Amino acid sequence: MSNYHIKNLEEYFQVYRKSVRDPESFWEEIAEENFMWRKRWDKVLEYDLSKPEVSWYKGAKLNITENCIDRHLYTRGDKTAIIFEPNDPSEEAEHISYKQLHERVCRFANVLKNHGIEKGDRVCIYLPMIPELAVSLLACARIGAIHSVVFAGFSATALSTRINDSDCKMVITSDGSYRGNKTIDLKGIVDEALESCPSVQTVLVAKRINSEIPMKTNRDKWLQPLLDEAYHDCEPVIMDAEDPLFILYTSGSTGKPKGMVHTTAGYMVYTAYTFKNVFQYRENDVFWCTADIGWITGHSYIVYGPLANGATTVMFEGVPSYPDFGRFWQVVEKHKVNQFYTAPTAIRALAKERLDFSENYDLSSLKILGSVGEPINEEAWHWYNDNIGKKNCPIVDTWWQTETGGIMISPIPYSTPTIPTYATLPLPGVQIALMDENGEELKGNQVSGRLCIKFPWPAMARTIWGNHERYRETYFSAFENKYFTGDGALRDSTGYYRITGRVDDVIIVSGHNLGTAPIEDAINEHPAVAESAIVGFPHDVKGNALYGFVILKEIGETRVHENLRKEINQIITEHIGPIAKLDKIQFTTGLPKTRSGKIMRRILRKIAEKDTNNMGDISTLLNPEVVQEIMDGAI
Length: 635
Ligand code: PRX
Description:
The chain is of the alpha/beta class. 32% of the residues lie in helices and 24% in strands. Bound molecules: adenosine-5'-monophosphate-propyl ester.
């Protein structure tokens, strides 16, 4: 029996049982098998979920880049670590070997050091999907700096909030980025953000689109000349197992974004283990995850998980629709991709297009298909299975979160029979509890409730940067001694899990987590707006889209409303980014409120979903009359 490359369902159950019976030996065995430790741990696990305090591999010393790069130099030095596929298909792809990656990371790490970055300093990375992005993460990790990657689609305001929250000393960006046939002025966004970021001393700028951009004296530096001058080797800084590796922000239902802190050893072991098991990665396979490294999926399954396994990982700069809807499949054919991992929203968008976009390409290299980020609906699952996998590639519907660091519930290919819309079974080491509203665990099968994890796993986030109490309150207070995910799930008669969606005010739009509160705050900044409420409604490509109910200070004419809609979306774009724009905006004179003044989103959700036959009890509302008005004006 192997912890890796589980071969059948019986073996999965054996490994799973072992992981529950004795989690410490289970995770100890995995840590012993595959990694390079400068000092062994004193204790595999110490925890107290009431505080919560969790420590994995305490006392161990390591550097994650030694594990992701140096360790492979003897056996895989010339093997390709990263294939960079540019936005424009006529630009040549770049193959970066492990040896080259080592040199690039070392040079970059020396540039960081030469600019005063030390262990524990925070570095904000705001880059498109170019090799410098992966290299900069690893360069930070090489010297123990904590990276905080901000997705390069976020606005200047969103960027500055994140930079200030963790007092970043440096920003790494580029002169601009390509996105399909558009270019984006990233450096301009950084300049605007930095008007209110006193902690930033240096901005390193990679050249990507060769645009003329202003460079601020003493602050902004072109990256390439510095790399050219830097020494090609850099000793790794040896880290404690629990030293922070990175911060990554995720939206909450209220308040500012939460800087989830991931630490070194547990995150490394878990992402490496899950990568190998879930994608059944074999030497010489080519793995492609289409996510952006700005999200956790990219951190764990483009960079750390694959590289810790000495894998070849594809980094794609472009979008699925450029130059046409065949681009994903052209890249699969070109690089002979074996495992392909994407989001349901991309699958739905492609499924709407002509079939010959995929039929024109040779997809026979594919062995395993993955899905992540939101529930995959049955239609999309079948389209993916039939047209891309040719009914020959297991689909792994992987459920996890920024907070969990790695995949938690997923089929293991060739072992777990798949069923559309089911993430199926927890991975070894993952102990699930479904809870009812009274805080009782639901035992047995055919139950549905709130999805919790009742035992620590190595890649769990340890805290929220600068606010441990918020971490406790958000994740560990709803159910005693359990991590609450914010999702609902059902366990069917065979024990399979199906994720039913968020049970809080987070809405997943095109696979992106959006909290309602920050969007409402942005809208309320508009001088004409008195109050607003956002809910989600089903959308056939995005999964969910956003519906805003807005009360104006003065009731205007309909003609003016059109302009206001544009202005509201403009304000959202400025505060958060275009991903948070509203699809529908309805102006109303009131919002349904409870007697304590809370907005009853349940009612707004039903109206947005056009499911108004049974509105439930509205008699307890402060203003029940407003419900009819909103229903009449629904879009
Ligand atoms: O609601 C779940 C949904 O995405 C949320 C986590 O979002 P984020 O932290 O941005 O991480 C996304 C990538 C790991 C979850 O709480 N979600 C993620 N994967 C699935 C999913 N919902 C259903 N099925 C999935 N496979």
